[in-house]
Amino acid sequence: MTATRTMTYAEAIREAMFQAMTADPRVFLMGEDVGIYGGAFGVTNDLYEKLGTDRIRDTTISELGIMGAGVGAALTGMRPIVEIQFSDFLCQAMDQVVNQAAKLHFMVGGQASVPLVIRAPGGSGTGAAAQHSQSLEAWFAHVPGLKVVMPSDATDAASLLLAALEDPNPVLILEHKLLYKQSFEVPEVFPKALLGQGRIVREGTDLTIVATSIEVQRASEAAELLAADGISAEVIDPRTIKPLDLPLILASVSKTGRVLLVQEAVKFNGFMSEVAAGIAESPAFGDLQAPIRRLCGLDTPIPYSPQLERASVPQVADIVREATALVKEW
Amino acid sequence: MLDIELVTHEQLDAEQAAARQDIREAVVFGTKGEDPTVEAMMAGIYAPSPVDAFDIAKGIVA
């Protein structure tokens, strides 16, 4: 049996960054308050003391400038990690992410690449309200040239970060701020991960629940409750939304005949719309016994009121309700 | 550069002529050469990656 240990999601990210920086002199981190302060969510913590200012670089409050410096460093052979304090602030850096990082390899005919890793916390649940709580993954997955990762536990947060650092393309890692302080069992050595390889979190036979980020955890809790009610739910975590492990999802849908797609982001034009389309365009569509169902965030800015904030994104009880209806009504 | 005699007018003219010749040749190459293929375009979006689960060289991302 593989030895395990307990660490938080944030600690796993920190350890992975330390591991990468001690193994490869090209890797460094820059962002707002990542140094002395230890990061807005404490992810970098003491890395500044351990690795110094060359590797852990505090920056000015200018996301576009930070991202531009990251793109430039990547082009010249470094392996920068850029931390954006809240994924909402990626809006400030869009030109560098979308028009530069994502395009340059293509526009120079493959003569250069941009091995840039962007880490940014997303999602709601901390009372940070409308400008600090969004789930914007669909925007970035829409851009050819970018890869988008959404780790749902500590092991994946570390393993997918290490994989991203080995990838010669720009990779955006959307961490969930509610997960940072949660503890997980992790292996002594983070397993090697591939970008675009999803995983079956829990096997089941009555329906497939595809979920991302923190909704994977909620879907797993819902699956426990559903099991008590005699419903066997298979939970799938795509882990990376681009590239997307659609074959894994299709195989599960063909097996169970029902699928519930769960994301925190708003439904309209969301990532799960792409998953639904992928299923509808495939032979797995013929195996469905019920319409594809999506359970997503409401089409609203995230409110400040804690009660409304919870109500605006899928919770465990919502997943149980939708899954039950999907199985019992069809 | 001229003021501090780093270059001469003749050298600048030669550089300009060479640059124009490069552009002329590039235009000829671009208009007379074979059209690139769709496959080549799709394969050029991502750099080949040792950690991608899919075959980027074929332009398959999902």
Can you put this structure into words, describing what you see?
The complex is a heterodimer of chains A (330) and B (62). Chain A is an alpha/beta fold and 330 residues long. Chain A folds into 2 domains: 4-187, Rossmann fold; 199-328, 3-Layer(aba) Sandwich (Rossmann fold). Chain A is built from 12 helices and 14 strands. Chain A has a 7-stranded mixed β-sheet with strand order 3-2-4-5-7-6-12, sandwiched between helices. In chain A, strands 9-11-10-13-14 form a 5-stranded mixed β-sheet, with helices on both faces. In chain A, strands 1-8 form a two-stranded antiparallel sheet. The longest helix of chain A is centred in the first third of the chain and has 15 residues, at 9-23. Chain A is globular, with a radius of gyration of 20 Å. In chain A, 54% of the residues are buried. Chain B is mainly α and 62 residues long. Chain B is built from 2 helices and no strands. Chain B has helices at residues 9-32, 38-43. Classes of the chains: A alpha/beta (330), B mainly alpha (62). Chains A and B meet through helix 7 of A and loops of B.
